[in-house]
């Protein structure tokens, strides 16, 4: 039979399933024998339910534990879940940003090529206009000279 030592304090009580709660008396050896647990018989549940301290104990057993460690782990698990979601969003946004950057580079290249083409066409038109102006000026000078000779 196992023995558990108790200090005999004033007001210290011991629960005996057959007798209920009883005061612990100052024993000379300062220990109390511990009886093996008694299984409930059909008549004992009524006695157990009438004991207010046991009723309170059973109420506490039916309530979910308010374990601070479990609460902290739930908070951590929630935070990890949110972190994972945000990392996925960040990865998707980076991929989208990379796609947009590539599209912007293509648009810049296209715009630069179009500007170069316009510049080339403008230069060609300017050259043609200068050539026409020179031809027109030369034609005017020759025609003027011919018309002066015929007079």
What's this model, at a glance?
This protein has helices at residues 44-50, 52-62, 68-150; strands at 3-5, 13-16, 20-23, 31-33.
Could you give the topology of this structure?
Layout: E1 3-5, E2 13-16, E3 20-23, E4 31-33, H1 44-50, H2 52-62, H3 68-150
Shape: rod-shaped
Total strands: the figure is: 4
Order of strands, widest sheet: 1-4
Secondary-structure element series: EEEEHHH
Helix content: 55-70%
Proportion of residues in extended strands: 5-15%
Radius of gyration: 51 Å
What is the makeup of the main sheet?
Answer: 2 strands, antiparallel
Q: Low-confidence parts lasting 5 or more residues at pLDDT below 50?
A: 1-6, 26-34
Secondary-structure-based class equals: mainly alpha
Average pLDDT value? Answer: 78
